[in-house]
């Protein structure tokens, strides 16, 4: 009778240890967190801020506000940056191009050309909201009295 009690108990104890071992595996960083850390390492002056609802806020001296949006159902990651001036400085475009090049693994010159091309189209004839596509990137530029913002993303191939 004691042998019958020991075997099931030993089995349950072994299963409990296995479940504990599976559940106690070390936590791995999310892909989006890894991208943010890579941006902070590769681009001078970038610091990582708080994370909220799949968006990691970044700070850099050349931008007023910057963020890295994590991938969703229909989009891969998104880079957003805004500046307080209507005509952004070269450093602003350099930040956007560097971040887009790292996140989307494209050449920095292509990202720079796409961002400047989009921002230069903001004006009286084309309007204040410009949506363009360059090298498989969706680039949205908005101009206002308060400044200029650029969002770079890529649609997922479904």
Can you describe this structure?
By secondary structure, the chain is α+β, with helices and mostly antiparallel strands. The protein contains 4 helices and 7 strands; from the N terminus they run ααββββααβββ. It has helices at 2-23, 31-42, 90-104, 108-120, and strands at 47-52, 55-59, 65-69, 75-83, 129-134, 137-143, 148-155. A 7-stranded antiparallel β-sheet has the order 1-2-3-4-7-6-5, with helices on one face. The longest helix is centred in the first third of the chain and has 22 residues, at 2-23.
Topology:
Layout: H1 2-23, H2 31-42, E1 47-52, E2 55-59, E3 65-69, E4 75-83, H3 90-104, H4 108-120, E5 129-134, E6 137-143, E7 148-155
Antiparallel strand pairs: 1-2, 2-3, 3-4, 4-7, 5-6, 6-7
The main sheet orders its strands as 1-2-3-4-7-6-5
Count of DSSP helices? 4
The ordered H/E elements are HHEEEEHHEEE
Q: Which regions are unreliable across 5 or more consecutive residues at pLDDT < 50?
A: 17-28
């Amino acid at each position: 009778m004691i042998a019958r009690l020991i075997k099931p108990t030993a089995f349950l104890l072994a299963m409990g240890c296995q479940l504990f071992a599976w559940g106690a595996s070390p936590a791995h960083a999310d892909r989006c967190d890894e991208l943010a850390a890579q941006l902070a390492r590769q681009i001078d002056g970038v610091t990582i801020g708080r994370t909220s609802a799949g968006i990691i806020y970044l700070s850099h001296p050349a931008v007023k506000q910057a963020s890295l949006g994590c991938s969703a159902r229909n989009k891969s990651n998104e880079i957003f940056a805004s500046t307080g001036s209507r005509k952004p400085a070269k450093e602003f475009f350099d930040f956007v191009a560097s971040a887009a090049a790292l996140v989307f693994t494209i050449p920095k010159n292509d990202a720079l050309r796409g961002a400047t091309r989009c921002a230069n189209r903001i004006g009286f004839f084309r309007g204040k909201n410009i949506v363009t596509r360059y090298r498989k990137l969706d680039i949205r530029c908005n101009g206002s009295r308060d400044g200029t913002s650029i969002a770079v993303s890529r649609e997922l191939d479904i």
